[in-house]
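Mods, move this if it's the wrong board.
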Amino acid sequence: MADITRRLGWRHLRGAPTAHIRHHRSGTLVHDGPGLSFWFRSLTAALSEVPVDDRELAMTFHARTADFQDVAVQATVTYRVSDPAVAAARLDFSIDPDTGAWRGAPLEQLGTLLTETAQQHALDVLARTPLAEALVDGVTSVRERVAAGLAAEPRLPATGIEIVAVRVVALRPEPEVERALRTPAREQIQQEADRATYERRAVAVERERTIAENELASKIELARREEQLVDQRGTNARREAEENAAADKVRAEAEATRTVRLARAEAEAAREVGEARAEAQAAWLRVHADVDVTTLHALTGTRLAENLPRIDSLTVSPDVLTGLLAKLGASQ
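Not the wrong board. Structure tokens:
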């Protein structure tokens, strides 16, 4: 919408760069172009504002397929006014000189023209297409047919309209039909999911079995090695006992041999000592055999005196002395 300012019976219009302004004064074109700014009198001015920017028109309409199924078509048409003079001549783009608002609804007229034209071509192509095929390839075929139909439509150039792009967003059947169509796919997807779940479970079970077998094999191997270890320990203990017994036997034999030799040596020494003592005693006896009795008595007294304790003093009574003298006399 143009920006209009009022000053003492005069009006000032300032247009946007995307709006084409046409100013007629008394039937004569005075200003013509986008983004204009000028003063005018409202009583003698006839103003038109034609948008020249790209505009998008969203449309939704229903169609019926070859197998009599209703579908909803969602599409978007991008267009622009390529010839503002023609568009202003064919449609009412005039604006109020006081407010700058359109007096009519030109864009709604353009929307109706484009929607009806696009719907006509979409209905034509869908009427010859079954529902299943339309849901698979219908978006592309409808878009191509609508774009070709709008490009060949003679009323659009005659109105100064140029089609920029056509997009078909979706083709949707009725909710009941859509649910019915989704059911096989959902069941197939569910079956695939179930099969994948079963396969994962089978793989998990197989892995658990493999792990259990590995653990069992490890336990068996460990038990076998423990058995070998016990056998080896028994063998080592038996060998150690045998070696200890052999060593004890060697030590006992050595000790017995040493004891025998010691006993023999002691016996030989005792025999030799005995023989020496016997010889000494025999010699002693032979020596004393030739000595008289008095000498033997003296030697006996001497030996006896050697074995008596020490006597510091000796008192001899007359009785003892008399007896001793009598004995000595008798012996002579």
